[in-house]
Structures are given as structure tokens and as C-alpha cells.
Amino acid sequence: MELSLLYPEWQSYGENAAVHYGALKLSEALFGGRNFFKVEVPDHESLEKTDGVLGLASIAPRFAATLKEIQQRQPNRIFMIGGTCGVEVAPVSYLNMKYQGDLAVIWFDAHGDLNTPDSSPSGHFHGMALRTLIGEGPEEYVSLVSRKLLPRQIFLAGSRELDRPETEYISQVGISVTRPEEFADANILVGRIKRAGFNNIYVHLDLDVLNPNSFSNSLMQTPGGPSISEVQKLIKVLAESFNAVGFSIVEYCEHQRDNSLEILKDLVNDSGITNGWNGGETLRVRPHSS
After folding, report:
1. 29 or 276, which is more confident
2. Is the model's pTM score more than 0.90?
């Protein structure tokens, strides 16, 4: 079973709901009116910081409800359009358990998302998502992640704006980093994943990985980075080389009206990972269902 998921949460960024509306627009373009699993998210909400995390009282119950719904349906593959990177914890933790740790997580992102509530300068959970999957994050999340990621399962791709604690952590635990200049040779990343012994991959695509000169409608525009074409080609080679059990696109914002939705449709259609965008079971997930 394949599951198509719309998780338009903005609260793990917390400053505005631009990614919420962006995710809704992107779902219309990619899902094309087909059925999908939708997580209900209010577009206006007052948020407070709890235990170093902005909006924790909002995002944690929504995560628990979403994870429960996914676990009940037991999909083999998940395809997601999300608001922020914070929504990754539910699908990735589920797939890591399902495939018993045989899962390489390719994190296309300008940022590492490896902060903790203590190290985060902002308290925004979208910058803590990957570290939470490792098991170092808010207890409300970590306690429900049955199988934590090991650092060797993580392959950062395109990261170029890291906080000092993240840089130190990457060096300490040996997380793989594929620099933007290495995108031109897909064999570099493919070889690293093969040598690590993984068969299944999850592709996380935060649109800020893209060079703003190539694509500007992302939440956290970051100078430098690969072009749309370079990312598209690399994802296609990954799909040809491994069993893609998950693919997400997050943090789309329509800062300016252009052809960015068409660009993303082309990226998905040419990625080699297309079936899941044709829709899954229709669901609506609310926090009170947990």
C-alpha cells in the first residue's frame, strides 16, 4: 500500500503560516484533486514556547495522532507534501521501524536540522527534526519514536548553513555530508549509500536546498546550493539505484507568482519516484484522535 500525505503544519516554524498555504497549493498541483491523507492544521493559532520548543503544545499532539494513523494503515511507501521539516518525524520513524533500520535518509536541505531544544537559537522545531529522529529531542516526540535513526543512516545533501553545535555534532558522530559541488557526480552519493549497505531510501526535499537563483519560493532561502536540474538528476539516479520507500517535499512558500509549481511538477514527474503522487487513502487526522 502507498500512502499520499498532506501535512501542512507551519507551527514548527511558528512565525507565520506561509508554508501552510504553500503546502495546500502544492498539493493541488501534485495530487491533482486525487485522494490523500490530510492532517488537519489550523491556519491561525497563538503559540508559546515550552521546554525550549515554540508551539510544542500544538505540534506534539498532532504528531502523535498522525503517527498512530500511519501505523494503523501500515503503508509500504509514503509520499508527503509538508509544511515544515518538523513533519518528517512521523513518516520517517514509521518507515525506519517497518524496514528494521534498512533505511537511508537522504536529507536534501540547506540546513542540518540537528539542533536540540537546548542548542536551538530560535526554538523552532523544524530545525530539530532530524536530531529528534536520532532520539535527542522533545520527550513528547522521542518517546513515540520506536526505532531511532542511527547517524550512519543519515546522508545530508546540499547542507551549507549550519549552526556551530550542528557542525560539531556532525563531526563527532560521522554523519555523511554531500556538498553542493558534489551533486554533478551522482555516483559520489550513491556510492556512499551502497558502501553503508542500505537498500531502501527516504528522500527529504526541503526546497531551500535549491540555489535561490534557480528556485526562490522556499521558506528559508539560502545563498549557493545546487540548481533544480542538478537535484532532479541526483534524485532520479537515487531512485534507479535503490528502493525508494518515501519522498517528501517541504517548505514551499509562494513569495512571488511564477512557474514554480510547474517546475516542481516536472521535478516529481522526472524523479523516477512518481506512483505515490497518484493518491492514497482519504484520511483526516486531528490531534484529538490520539
Report:
1. 29
2. yes
